[in-house]
Amino acid sequence: MITAIVFVKADVARIPEVAEQIAALDGVSEVYSVTGQIDLITLVRVSNHDDVAAVVADRLNKVPGVTATETHIAFRTYSKHDLESAFSIGLD
């Protein structure tokens, strides 16, 4: 599984609509509205690098209201949440 973190700048008047459209894209697991120099942080989780390109370059960048993106590929996961789910066998 490849995780890409995408910083999105959007037309300020359209941030909620842009976030909803991005969240509906296949391969997008989460979208956060944030403070600071960027407007949205998007987590893309796909099986290969070509799929990252398909999600970000072919679809996300074309959402009306997206003005710029910056994509970061994650090397490793250190999150307790992700590690616990990776080793979970489904028992409560």
TrEMBL record:
Pfam families: AsnC_trans_reg. It comes from the Bacteria. Residues 7-77 form the Transcription regulator AsnC/Lrp ligand binding domain. One of its GO terms (cellular component) is cytosol. GO terms for biological process: response to amino acid. SUPFAM superfamilies: Dimeric alpha+beta barrel. GO terms for molecular function: sequence-specific DNA binding. This is Lrp/AsnC family transcriptional regulator. It comes from Nocardioides euryhalodurans.
